[in-house]
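HOLO CASE FILE
Compound: flavin-adenine dinucleotide
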Amino acid sequence: MIPLNQQHEADVAVIGGGIAGLMAAIAAADKGASVVLLDKANTKRSGAGATGNDHFLCWIPEKHGDISVVYNEFMDSQNATSNDTPLVMRFLETSPKIVNMWNDWGINMKPTGDYHFEGHAYPGRPRIFLKYDGHNQKAVLTEQAKKRGVKILNHAPVLEMFRDAEGVTGVLALDASGDEPSFITVKAKAVVAATGYVSRLFTTDPTPSQMFNTNMCPSGTGDSIAQAWRIGTYLVNMEKTYRHAGPRFLARCGKATWIGVYRYPDGRPVGPFITKPNVETGDMTSDVWSSAFTDLKLSGRGPAYMDCSGASKEDLEHMRWAMKCEGLTALLDYMDKEGIDPGKHAVEFGQYEANLVTNGIEIDINGESNVRGLFAAGDMMGNISGDIGAAAVYGWIAGHHAADYRTRALGDISQESAEERMAFYSSIYERKVGASWQEANFALQQIMTEYADCGPHRVRSDTMLTAGIKYLGDLRKKIETQLYATDAHELMRAAEVVNLLDLGEALMISARERKESRGRHIRSDYTFTNPLLRDKFLRVWKEGDEVKTAWRDRLI
Amino acid sequence: MPPVINKEKCIHCGQCVDICPMDVFYGSKKGEFPIVRYPEECWHAEACALQCPVDAIDFRIPLTLIVPVKKLPHDAMS
Ligand SMILES: Cc1cc2nc3c(=O)[nH]c(=O)nc-3n(C[C@H](O)[C@H](O)[C@H](O)COP(=O)(O)OP(=O)(O)OC[C@H]3O[C@@H](n4cnc5c(N)ncnc54)[C@H](O)[C@@H]3O)c2cc1C
Ligand code: SF4
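Model generated. Tokens follow.
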């Protein structure tokens, strides 16, 4: 058995030291709560915001006037289909305070001297993405958390959450900082789950042979969504898988930072919005027609290119600077080495594989789930989108409310559940032969991509999903008895696959239940979009071994 | 795009080992030249290169990750 070497107690335990997790820890500590934050890596450079971001969705009253200006633009965007309105309003109302806080702490929110909004915008319409320089954001937030006495445990991936009849009671984690794994427990009065985006569920689209070439951080495997699922937390919008786009074949987010025009190979613009690069708006074509790159390729009219060649010298310099703020250093280095000059060469763009973002834990206006004391924030929130802005703001809101539990008595982690889970993870480490985590992950991706992929040009159906659910069940039995790891790092990766398997199941069951086609969820057996389901969110959760689903109205 | 460390420059401080979000240098010992143990898990975040105090880290780009480019006819017009 892997030894249990550390036992901590805290008012609030935070899972994940990304943008949302660090903000939650800061807010909870500000309110006087004792906080332990556990991260899979090192919070100074972990997660999707590791090396920077540059667009922050927010409301700045002196720039936008009424909040409805930002609300309307936001709700028109492609990812707003999973948003409960009261949460969006709370996010936007709180955003000016957070933006000012970040600026005071030393994240430059006014790199041009004032608040300036650019990119992700339609010509002639209000702009809602604040241009900022996030290259140092993780170091700054880590320093702010430490200053407030937050205890940060790096290289300590959380494996499980625990609850009793009253609510959440704590977490089990792995100490993966050395060769030999050991366990850590944290008893807590409240838990904030903030493990980010879900990668690695579907076969990596640009490069099937390179599982870690993903547009978002490939260590983000939705761990806390799965852990919450296992203790009966409501998940929502799990069927609404997302597909991002960007440069081929080096997968990377950040398409809005490119100042260019999407073009056909013969030079004609793909979309109707601009014919010349426009630094203020960018080219909205791929936001509006998100399947454009795939459509062009499959119709034989592609590939599509991002062409910055018409941009002025100043705009190209601005783009290079912005790419650094955005953390796209690898892409810049690559282009420099290969002699690629965006001022001369158009870069091929394409869609990446399906992912989960804004598909996850259902929260209330304070960030709390249906399990008392369990909060969720960031990309793993199931009913509000907004990327870095929402992660920062809702992280802060969740931490603020989680701290209210500090007056509650500390519950006990059930000895029986903890021992059962420790025995399970120990068995993976003690097994000498079997399936590596890579093998298990590829097997899972195969099933997900074959039976539950989303559009464009891929369909789901009752029979395909039913088959897929059966195959996931078969794979689960094999994974539980064959998965093996030779060190703490591989054990962490093995646990990720176990989590992805749960998320795959929740996704397929939800997709089978949504009997219509909507956006990327294309059903061959229900080819129409049902107006009655427009404002309906699908909730999925576990009661014992049984999976339940229920519809609810989107909150307006 | 796994990291390649310059042996001459490296001062064995171990900062890259601790900072890498993917644990690519997992198992490396403090005070020793780091080993690139799990190169296929590199996300080319370049966190290690940004952290390295002596600029000792470079990257090899796998052939699978090429970025295809084209000079478009539109160039002539701009
Ligand atoms: C290159 C790039 C550019 C981007 N640009 C923008 C932009 O300009 N604007 C924008 O709005 N958004 C942008 N995004 C998206 C943005 O970075 C994310 O939306 C944001 O970081 C989400 O924050 P989060 O806290 O939910 O997750 P993350 O910041 O990804 O943090 C998740 C954290 O959880 C940790 N973790 C994971 N599993 C576990 C576990 N089991 N136990 C403990 N810890 C765990 C991870 O190590 C990580 O620290 C970009 C993303 C990328 C990759
Ligand atoms: S950070 Fe640089 S100097 Fe330090 S161990 Fe890594 S490569 Fe060597």
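CASE NOTES: Residues 488-513 of chain A form the longest helix (26 residues). The longest strand of chain A covers residues 4-15.
CLOSED: yes
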